[in-house]
Amino acid sequence: MVRLLLIVAVAAGALAFAGCGQQFELPPQPESGRIPTPGTYNLDRIWEIPSPTDLLVHGSFVYVIEEEATVEVYLRRYPEPVRPAFVGDFEGLVRPVHVCLARRDSTFIFVADAGDMQVKRYYFRGGEPLHAFRDSAWVELSGLAADEHLNVYVSDAVRDTIYKYDEYGERVRLIADRGTGQGFVIGPQGLAYRNKVLWVADTGKNWVQRLRPDSTNTAFEGHPIGLDIELAEPVDVAADPAGESVFVTEAANDRVFRFQATGGFQDTVYAHTKREVQVDPPLDAPRYVAADDSLVFLPDPENDRIIILRLTTP
Fold it and tell me: Which one of 13, 238, 255, 303 is most buried, counting C-beta atoms within 10 A?
């Protein structure tokens, strides 16, 4: 009798499951049996996102450029990408290529739009641009950063320049131009601003420099990142919220590193050979990086995904 009841129960459960009539395919996730390695970055989760490129993380939100067409917003704490209901479309974009954030009386999102060669400022909830400007000197919008005064910094790898603009879009000063020494740049790309320091991926010299944002061709004291540990084609740089760590993507060798703000090496965040972060297919030539607290976000436009890594504490 007991055996008969068990058979009936199992059959009823199978029918109920079949009655759902749907199969849900989850994006690839970390292996369930994988034990995180303390003191380094481990694979946390993977989001399926169409052709993500530049991105930023702020508080609960992740802002992502998708398919070089839109800026989308997601809640960072979920295993899958979830959009907040109160954030609207970022209107008036043609071909966005870079995104950054600044806080003053509110939180603002800046977007470098290569489609019409403008930098556009938005309220963090989206909508129409609050302000937009262009500079006829630009040939390429290679990097973008903004500070607490809503000053904007734009790098141009073709012209070997970084310019600073005020909140109205007026050019304030040349931050750096072509040269081989510290304070000068060759092919500058990714930018990051934190604690009155402007970080630049000085791609042509295989360096990452700390520049003074209130001066011209002036670097902070100390060696640039790339002298103590050799870099090959650093293309993007991001700083954590406290400004204590800097993350650098190295496209030529498919790696992402974490450094102290003073330039000392801290950790290999991603590499093909690092067991804790292996994904299939591997991330090749990482171009963009964003970091916040213990998480690092690595877009992979070729495979329509964002790889999210977490620093596991000892």
Answer: 238
